[in-house]
Design a protein that fits this description.
The structure holds two protein chains of two kinds. Chain A is mainly α. Chain A is 68% helix and 4% strand. The longest helix of chain A is centred in the middle third of the chain and has 34 residues, at 179-212. The relative contact order of chain B is 0.13. In chain B, β12 (246-252) and β13 (255-260) form a beta hairpin. Chain B has a six-stranded mixed sheet with strand order 6-7-8-3-9-10, sandwiched between helices. Chain B has a four-stranded antiparallel sheet with strand order 2-1-4-5, with helices on one face. Chain B has a four-stranded antiparallel sheet with strand order 12-13-11-14, covered by helices on one side. In chain B, α3 crosses α4 (107-120). Chain B contains ten helices and 14 strands. Chain B has helices spanning 44-51, 71-74, 92-102, 107-120, 136-148, 166-181, 193-199, 217-223, 266-275, 289-305; strands spanning 6-15, 18-28, 33-38, 59-64, 67-68, 77-80, 154-157, 186-189, 202-207, 210-216, 226-231, 246-252, 255-260, 281-285. Classes of the chains: A mainly alpha, B alpha/beta. The A-B interface holds A 1, 3, 5-8, 13, 16-17, 20, 24, 209-210, 213-224, 389, 391 and B 30, 49, 52-55, 71-72, 74-77, 79, 81, 83-90, 98-99, 101-104, 146, 151, 153, 182-184.
Chain lengths: 404, 306
Amino acid sequence: MSAPDVRMSPMAGVGLVATREISTRLKSKAYRISTLVQLILIVAAVVVLKLVSGSSGPDATVGYVPAAAPLSAPLVATAKSVGQDIATEPVANDQEGLAKLKDGSIDALLVQGADRVHVQVQKDLDNNLKNVLTVLEGQIALNGQITGLGGDPAKVHAAVAGATIDELPPLEKPYDYNGQQLVLGIVAGVLIYLSLLLNGQTVAQGVVEEKTSRVVELLLSTIKPWQLMAGKVLGIGVVGLIQMVAIGVVGLAAGLGLGVLTISVSAAIGTVVWLVVWYLLGFFMYSIVFAALGALVSRQEDVGGAVAPALMLVIAGYVVGISVLPSDPSNKFAEVLSVIPVFAPTLMPMRLAMGGVPVWEAVVSVGLVVLLIPALIWLAARIYRNAVMRTGAKVKLSEALRAA
Amino acid sequence: MSEPGLVIDAVSKRYGTVVALEKMSFDVRPGELFGFVGSNGAGKTTTMRIALGVLAADAGEVRFAGSPVTHETRRHIGYMPEERGLYPKMKVGEQLVYLARLHGMSAADAKASTQRWTERLGVAGRRDDEVQKLSLGNQQRVQLAAALVHEPRILVLDEPFSGLDPVAVDVMSEVLKEKAGEGVPVVFSSHQLDLVERLCDRVGIVRSGRMEALGSVAELRAGGTVRLLVTAPRAPEGWAAALPGVTVLGRDGSVTELELADGADDQAVLRAALATGPVHEFARKLPSLTELFRSVVTEHHQEVAA
């Protein structure tokens, strides 16, 4: 009996636990299917966006009978001046025009003559189009008056067009939010939120699984509680990361490849990098809390209730982000919350993807979370160690914290 | 080595005001099968958990081969917890390899050992099945394999025989004897006292967190009060009642069962019996472990009543 003494570094124990988590989960059908479904969804979303944006033609098409032809060019010009893109299309007569109205190939038909705007629609006149036509009608009236006073309408219009205000440079340069980046921000928020939710719950369930099956006693006779907890969090974290990176890369590649995303590649990569950084920070921060809370209960049915308090914070951050930021990316309330560690993992990546985050805010929010994690590890390890061997009724948090 | 084997030295543990262990002490020598008996809640599981470091003791020490058991030495212990448990959804083979590796075995050794023990315990054909798909009996065999797969130098088994069918009991007994034969100290708890009596070299009886009786089965049996069985067909009722230091426990036909107080003379009993007529049998009756156990537990009840 002179077996060599076993020398296993603490990290080797953590590594073994993590490896088991990774291989068990990667092999599980549920994980493979959910990853595949998410990849398909993100590619499908990109393709749908592509189709929707690809069909962008003029805002409206207006037909005109030969008598109304002189209105065609002013109509297009007027529309352009108010930001509308209107196409015109000549028709031979009223009958042909009415037929086109009916089949929807034109939105409105100008009839009778060019003295004023006579418009015929199938059902109702689009508000934007109505505005354009009203402005046009106003100009016709104005032209009549100018001519009546002996002036030249063309000259007057040129003078009016040439009048500009003297805009001084702004005191504070506003960030020019890009529409696509706003969408990216929303997607980033949803991804982070979902993966915190799912992977965080997985950690809690994994802890309870070991408690319910009582395998935890056997495990704790070889490794220390913190090793078991760290290995589990690390393993599930890696699995979640693989999923997150796959979705991020596939989504962006599809977006850039299909030309839906026109932001620069570096901005796109920046988004993915921030996404990964915040996923890791948020995951580690929340999952160690989830592991500790999961250790308090002994049955899978009780996991939901046990992790609810921590989950509420994840949800709160997400809800604030998703309801405020898309319409108001520089919202002050969201900006403040996004620096506070418990809300940062859901809010900060959204803001970062949308752009316009001052560097100091990004640094401070990361720093605070990084500082908080060791404190949470200490606290969670204490709760976990005290609660994980106690089966039966839910262990009170105060008891788990107190017991030596 | 002055003190080979596993030593539990004055280990105490309390939960709030409840005393779970009070200076629990015993040792398990290399190559010895040690039976750990006691009623439910006597402190057997607590003692084993402390030996495995799953629980921390308030006082006392656990030593192996003369030095305190550390996290490193614990890897050499094969443990079967009272609360059986394996990952239900993990395959038998993968699970055993994982546990062996947690005990510090290399991947290759762990694999070979898993193969060896699953074959030895008759679950080799189930290596690729999830644990939850196995019958209870087979799950128990896997559980034993989990305690043995890392070739432990100490075995601590909590109720290893509970829930086993007779064939599995035989396999388990054989494996334990074989391990002890290799010089491994083996300690196990059990409520099946006949089994403990048959298998164990030494036995410890615990009550309320204290070791009440400790020794080989023969020592313990001999150490109890002396009982005599006397077969004297013609002896009248009450023939032995007046003898000094003798209590008549009962009479069944011609057989009278007597208990002698310390120092009472059994030869005086024999002479008294012969005086009544022929004596066909005069024998010392050694108490069985079950009787010893009962007397330890009853003493306790009397104390409580007093």
